[in-house]
Amino acid sequence: MNRAVLSLVILFCFVAFSCGHKPTPTPPPVPVNIMTATAQHVTYFDKYPATTVALAQVNLSAQVTGYITGIYFTEGAHVTKGQRLYSLDERLYQAAVDQARANLRVDSGILKQTKQDADRYTYLAKYNAIATQVVDHAVISYQNAVDSVKAAQQQLKTALTNLTYASIYAPFDGTIGISQVRLGNLVSPGTTVLNTISSDDPMAVDFVIPEAQLPHMEDLQKNKQHDIDSLFTIILPNGQVYPQLGKIAIIDRAVDPQTGTITVRLTFPNKGYYLRPGMSTIVRVHNQDEAPQIVVPSRAVVEQMGEFFLFVAKDTVLKSSDTTAKAQKADTAETPKLRAFQKKVQLGQTIGANVIVRSGINEGDKIIVDGVQAIHEGSQINASSKPQDAAGSQGAGANGGGANSADGKKGNDSASAGKRQQQ
To answer: What are the helix and strand counts (H, E) for the chain?
Structure first.
C-alpha cells in the first residue's frame, strides 16, 4: 500500500515538474502596414476664427434739442463725408442768432460813442480844460464797451454753432444703418442715438493668436515672407473664399494675461461692400516651412495622457528577463524579428488626413500606419509587402485645413485621430 502511494507521489511530482517547464506559446505576428518617413517641403493654411470690424464707427447723436424735420438719406446706403443726414427745427436757433447779431450792433454803437468821448476828453486834458475824473470815467467806459463787443461776438458764435448743430452731417465716408428716429420725434443731446455710421472700405478683420506665434506674425508684418502668394485670405460665412487679399494693419499692444493670446488686425479692400462689420469669418494664413518636414497619416498617431506617439518598426532580438529562458537559449542564436517600438513625437499642423511631425522620429524610419490598435511596445509584427510613402498619403502640399499650428500646441485633428486609434 505504501509503495503504491509513493509511486503516485513520484508520478505527480514528475508531471508537475514537466508542466512547470512547458514553454509559453509565442503569439503570432500582428499584420500591419508601414511607411517610410521622408522629409518634404510642406505648404498649408493656418486657420483662425475672425470677425470683421469697421476701422471707424460712430453713433450719430444730436447736440441740441429739437424735433426731427428732415431725413436726407437712404437707410443702409453708402454716404459721403459732409453729406447732410438729419435736420432739426431751426426756428429757435435762428432767432437766437438774430438776437445775438442785434446785441452786437448795439454794443458796437456804444463802443463807437465811448471811443469818441475818451478821445475828446483825453485831448482836453492836455490843456487842463477838463477834470481828470471825467477823463478817467470816459476811458473806463470805453474799455467796458470793448469788452461788451467781444462778449456779443462770442454770443453770436455760440448761436451760430447751435444753428449748425440743427443739421447732422456724415463725419466720414461709410455705410449708414437703419434710422432710430422718424420725422417729428423729439431728440435731446447725449440721450438719443439717431443712427450709426461705419467705414466700409477698407474693412478690418480681427483674430487672436497664441503668444507663441507672435514672433511669426511680427515677421509677416515686416514683410519677411513677401514671396508667399495669397498670404492672408478669409473664408466668408457661406464657405466661399473672399477674392481680395489682406495685409497686417495692427498687432495689439499687449498679450491678454488671462488667455495668453494677442489680437491681430488685417485690412481687406471692400470696393463692392461685400464685407460688413460683425461677420464671422475664418482667416487663412498661407504658411510655408523653410525646412522639409516629415508628414505621416493622422491615423498612425496614438494619444496617451495628452501626449502623442508613433510606432516604429525595427528588426531586433527582444531580450528576455527570465533567467531560465536565458539558460535554455544560451547555446542557440535567435534570429532578429520585426517588432514595434513606441516613439514620443511632437506634432505640428494637420493637413487633411495627414499631420506634420516636428520631432521624435527621423527620416527613413519605418512608421506603422495601420494596425496600431492591436500592438504594444515590443510586439512582433508582420509588415505589409506594399509599404506606403509619406508623399503618397494625400500630398504634403495640399491646402487642407487644420487646427492652428504652434510649437506649443498640438493639432486637434491629430489628437482626435490618435484617440480613435487608441480605442
So the answer is: 6, 24
